[in-house]
Write a structure and sequence with these properties.
GO terms for molecular function: nucleotidyltransferase activity; tRNA threonylcarbamoyladenosine dehydratase; ubiquitin-like modifier activating enzyme activity. It comes from Pontiella desulfatans. Keywords: Nucleotidyltransferase, Transferase. With 265 residues, the chain is of the alpha/beta class. 30% of the residues lie in helices and 20% in strands. The chain has eight helices and twelve strands. A seven-stranded mixed beta sheet has the order 8-7-6-9-10-12-11, sandwiched between helices. A five-stranded mixed beta sheet has the order 2-1-5-3-4, with no helix packed on it. Helix 4 (93-105) crosses helix 8.
């Protein structure tokens, strides 16, 4: 029968078990991942199963690293999202966090755009570091993402997004992420961008209940994440927890769309 071992198709005997596979191929492995779940007990293997054998603390060779990085994925996910392109307009608290999530799951290509630079007040919620203050966000984020997952393709633009350039920048994407701060910028993207589904956000300021942040579908191709009410204002700031909840909900909607499951949004 055929199984997948560290993302490579392998022919094994019908009576092969997880432990016998480890004994033959990597006896020092102490992390065993079976169909996306870490397990400690022996399991009889079946046709089409996916197994990853990992030794804690060991840096695997380059030709195995990408496969082991996605070993905890649900089986079948990586093959689909590896072919996808996602655009992110705005690389602040939302956009930088969405980008990190999508890089970690291995989306094939990310197109990232923002005109701004990193400054100190960004660091309470955005995915940058103190030594990146003053750098263009597009450049700083690309450097950080390459450290997280060098197997993703990154295209970055340090410029202001306008109705005139948005479709040229993001025309090839399969899903578009709106991650602007200002309402007028959000409206511009929703009105100007044509083609792919849009995952936008509105209402995640303060420190109220995360349960008020949800996903709403508007029309055929627009999904809005947030509570639609709580914007940044004096006495109600933007902070990592609720911004992060919204960003990761946006990333999850993107994943559902790429996998062809928008009905579960």
């Amino acid at each position: 029968m055929k199984i997948t071992l560290n993302e490579r198709v392998l022919e094994v005997a019908e009576e092969t078990s997880l432990f016998s596979l480890r004994k033959e191929h990597k006896p020092d492995a102490d992390v065993l991942v079976y169909n996306g779940a870490a397990v400690s007990e022996d399991i009889a293997l079946h046709e089409g199963d996916s197994v990853n054998l990992i030794r804690r603390g060991e840096t695997p060779p380059a030709d195995e690293l990408e496969a082991l990085m996605v070993s905890r994925h649900t089986p079948g996910v990586h093959e689909k999202i590896k072919q996808a392109t996602v655009g992110i307009a705005g690389l602040g608290g939302l956009g930088s966090s969405v980008a990190v999530a999508l890089a970690r799951i291995g989306v094939g290509r990310l197109i990232l755009a923002d005109f701004d630079v990193v400054e100190p007040s960004n660091l309470n919620r955005q995915q940058y570091f103190i030594d990146q203050i003053g750098q263009a966000k597009a450049d700083a984020l690309e450097a950080n993402l390459k450290r997280i997952n060098p197997y993703v393709g990154y295209e970055t633009h340090c410029l202001r997004i306008t109705p005139e350039n948005i479709n040229g920048l993001f025309g090839p994407v399969d899903v578009m992420v709106e991650a602007f701060d200002r309402p007028d910028q959000k409206a511009m993207l929703l009105q100007s961008f044509k083609g792919a589904p849009i995952v936008a956000a509105s209402g995640m300021a303060g420190y109220g209940s995360g349960e008020t942040i949800g996903v709403r579908k508007l029309g055929e191709r627009i999904f809005i994440v947030g509570d639609l009410e709580t914007g940044a204002a004096p006495g109600c700031g933007l902070m990592a927890p609720r911004v992060g909840i919204a960003a990761h909900m946006q990333a999850n909607v993107v994943l559902q769309l790429l996998l062809g499951e928008p009905q579960s949004v």
